[in-house]
């Protein structure tokens, strides 16, 4: 985590009150949906959010994946507090999988691209304009597995490797703080037969739009992106 606890608290508070002010109806609608384990998006306009608090905008641009996780937690707290405002007889269920989806990024060179992003853009949150030329079927992706150390019985999770097409490499060392030198690990549940931690996954292939490029440039196709 690159953000300190005060920054996390600030971002969480700002986002929680922002969504309660601007997206309370979206949240109330989600609370009345029947499916408890489904994933629900709340689409938040970046420009309006960053105008409400510029500092949050700066943190978001610098540490997007950390900040998105803070947003999702704040969304959950906002949902709990919104549910308390509903009359008792309303059938409402708190959902475990609420996600802030940030749209409408400000048009500036750091955040928007007309060309396929390069390797130096890895880890940045960007808006890319292009034509979708192929989409794969939506799939379920297993992204995390739990392992137990055979020696000290320490339990830890490993993430699927994005750069290896979301495959799992067996753990090579025990992350226990006791300096355990074990090299034997048992996979706890999960695995191909009954994956435990999954998310939706779809590959989309996009092509740059020729009319947006300078004369003489050739539109490139992206490799498939998630
Ligand atoms: Zn161990």
TrEMBL record:
- The UniProt record lists the MCM OB domain at 118-219
Q: Where is the MCM9 N-terminal domain?
A: 6-106
| Cellular compartments per GO CC | MCM complex; nucleus
Q: Please provide the Gene Ontology terms (biological process) for this protein.
A: double-strand break repair via homologous recombination
Q: Does the keyword Electron transport apply?
A: no
Query: Where does this polypeptide localize?
Result: Nucleus
Q: What is its main location?
A: nucleus
State its Enzyme Commission number(s): 3.6.4.12
Pfam family membership, one: MCM9_N
The reaction(s) this protein catalyses: ATP + H2O = ADP + phosphate + H(+)
Q: Which UniProt keywords apply?
A: ATP-binding, Helicase, Hydrolase, Nucleotide-binding, Nucleus
GO terms assigned for molecular function: ATP binding; hydrolase activity; single-stranded DNA binding; single-stranded DNA helicase activity
Q: Which residue stretches, if any, does this entry annotate as coiled coil?
A: none
Say which domain of life the source belongs to.
Answer: Eukaryota
What sort of enzyme, by top EC class, is this?
Answer: hydrolase
Q: Which family does it belong to?
A: Belongs to the MCM family.
User: PANTHER family, alphabetically?
Assistant: DNA HELICASE MCM9, DNA REPLICATION LICENSING FACTOR MCM FAMILY MEMBER
Q: What is this protein called?
A: DNA helicase
Give the organism the record lists: Anguilla anguilla
């Amino acid at each position: 985590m690159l953000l300190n606890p005060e920054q996390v608290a600030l971002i969480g508070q700002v986002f929680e009150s922002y969504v309660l002010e601007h997206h309370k109806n979206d949240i109330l609608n989600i609370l009345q949906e029947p499916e408890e384990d489904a994933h629900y998006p709340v689409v938040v306009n970046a420009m309006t959010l960053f105008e409400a608090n510029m500092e949050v905008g700066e943190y978001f641009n610098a540490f997007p994946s950390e900040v998105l996780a803070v947003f999702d937690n704040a969304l959950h707290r906002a949902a709990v507090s919104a549910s308390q405002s509903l009359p008792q007889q309303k059938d409402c269920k708190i959902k475990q999988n609420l996600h802030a989806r940030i749209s409408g990024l400000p048009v500036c060179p750091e955040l928007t691209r007309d060309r396929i992003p390069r390797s130096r853009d890895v880890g940045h949150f960007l808006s890319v304009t292009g034509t979708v030329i192929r989409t794969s079927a939506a799939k379920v992706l297993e992204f995390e597995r739990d392992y137990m150390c055979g020696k000290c019985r320490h339990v830890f999770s490993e993430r699927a490797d994005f750069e290896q097409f979301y495959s799992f490499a067996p753990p090579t060392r025990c992350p226990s703080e006791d300096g355990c030198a074990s090299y034997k690990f048992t996979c706890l549940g999960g695995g191909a037969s009954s994956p435990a931690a999954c998310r939706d996954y779809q590959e989309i292939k996009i092509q740059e739009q020729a009319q947006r490029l300078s004369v003489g440039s050739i539109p490139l196709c992206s490799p498939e992106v998630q």
